[in-house]
């Protein structure tokens, strides 16, 4: 966030809108600077502040600094939303306790499991994909969006079946038939898992490390979130 650009915008929005202005920041390298920024935003009219507990430089999937969020919360009088490090439903309570925040915000984990807040059993990716594609029929989406959602919904299932993931990645995003391709890949994946079929493949030359998917396929590491 660039305070010189953001502050007049927050102030103008606050003065001209009938709804509350909500801002979101990442941690700055120094906590005291982050607290100052948060206070300036509050003074400019921000009425809810979401704090992503990582710096811009830190990896988006590294640990989130909940202690820092707590200190920011303690310095402000407006509600604070804690973000980052809430990967499972059980983390919500822990995050609220440790940060004393008023709410938590979840992004990436809810893309992996859209039933995140429903609790209960871990959702089956293929079942979720069917449901997702039924929504796509009603609310058409771009092929690249469908591919991106399929990648995340199936992520916990890829395991030894990276050849199928590669098939998905190789699919030309301009191709309109993406929904049927995605379904075919998902069904093959489920069939293999249900029947204990393992495909013995040499690792691709540029093998991706677990977690790289986020940097490569999700928001890039240098996105200013
Ligand atoms: C697909 C996607 C899009 C995002 N877009 C934005 C955005 O436009 N603005 C923003 O401030 N953060 C954005 N983020 C970052 C999230 O709001 C959040 O700060 C970050 O993912 C950490 O939270 P998480 O651990 O729950 O994913 C995005 C994240 C994802 C996964």
Automatic annotation (TrEMBL):
GO function term, MF aspect, one: tRNA dihydrouridine synthase activity
Pfam families, A to Z: Dus
The keyword NADP is assigned to this record: yes
UniProtKB keywords: NAD, NADP
Superkingdom of origin: Eukaryota
Domain DUS-like FMN-binding: 3-166
CDD domains: DUS_like_FMN (cd02801)
Keyword NAD: yes
Full protein name: TdiRNAhydrouridine synthase
Organism from which the protein derives: Acanthamoeba castellanii (strain ATCC 30010 / Neff)
């Amino acid at each position: 966030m660039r305070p010189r650009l953001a502050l007049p915008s927050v102030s103008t929005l606050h003065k001209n809108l009938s709804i509350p202005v909500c801002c979101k920041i990442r941690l700055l390298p120094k906590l005291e600077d982050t607290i100052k920024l948060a206070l300036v935003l509050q003074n400019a009219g921000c009425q809810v502040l979401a704090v992503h507990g990582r710096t811009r430089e830190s990896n988006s999937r590294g640990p989130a600094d909940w202690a820092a969020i707590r200190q920011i919360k303690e310095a402000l009088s407006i509600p604070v939303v804690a973000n980052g490090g809430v990967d499972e439903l059980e983390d919500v309570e822990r995050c609220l306790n440790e940060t004393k925040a008023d709410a938590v915000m979840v992004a990436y984990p809810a893309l992996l499991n859209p039933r995140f807040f429903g609790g209960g059993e871990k959702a089956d990716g293929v079942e979720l994909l069917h449901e997702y594609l039924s929504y796509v029929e009603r609310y058409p989406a771009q092929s690249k969006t469908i591919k991106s959602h399929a990648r995340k919904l199936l992520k916990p299932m890829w395991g030894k079946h990276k050849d199928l993931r590669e098939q998905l990645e190789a699919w030309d995003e301009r191709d309109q038939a993406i929904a049927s391709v995605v379904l075919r890949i998902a069904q093959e994946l489920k069939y293999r898992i249900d029947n204990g079929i393992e495909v013995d493949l040499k690792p691709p030359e540029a093998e991706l490390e677990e977690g790289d998917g986020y940097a490569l396929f999700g928001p890039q590491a240098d996105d200013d979130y």
